[in-house]
Amino acid sequence: MATLKLTIFKAKVLKDGRHKIRVAVCHKQETCYIITRFIIDNLSQFKNGQVVKRPDAAMINTKLRNLLNKYQERLDKIDNPGIYSCTQLKDFILRESMDTQGESFKSVCDAYIEELFKNSKTNYANMMRESEAHFLKFLRGDVRLVDITPELIEQYAAYLEKRIGAGRHWG
């Protein structure tokens, strides 16, 4: 399960000695960082995910909490986050289009299969239905089209190779 937390990346000190506050996206034993616009003067001004020892600490903490809540909402909208890498989840969180639903793989496939049946392309429609079922089984659910990435396709290809290589049959 992916988690978000506020952090300072100590190795990335600015030239003037200050530090940018980052959102750490932790998933599958990996961590990616989203840089925020907030900067602290030294490490003593950041403790347990909170800005401290500054006159504007309360305001900064409120803004950071709102940002973290926004990112968490976007993360919560991702179906089957387990199939994605940490980097992919970070990209989804940053993508503004996460606020819109978008068409799902299953809905587009079902509409296309229906059209094939209407045009008397039964064999092709059945093949597409089977392909759809295998991809949805791999995903363990549905996915929005905008969330299908090259990395996800590579994972699916590896999944298919493993199934075929293991002597399993479709069905």
Automatic annotation (TrEMBL):
Residues 103-171 form the Core-binding (CB) domain. The keyword Lipid metabolism does not apply. Keywords: DNA-binding. PROSITE patterns: CB. One of its GO terms (molecular function) is DNA binding. This is Core-binding (CB) domain-containing protein. It comes from uncultured bacterium 52B7.
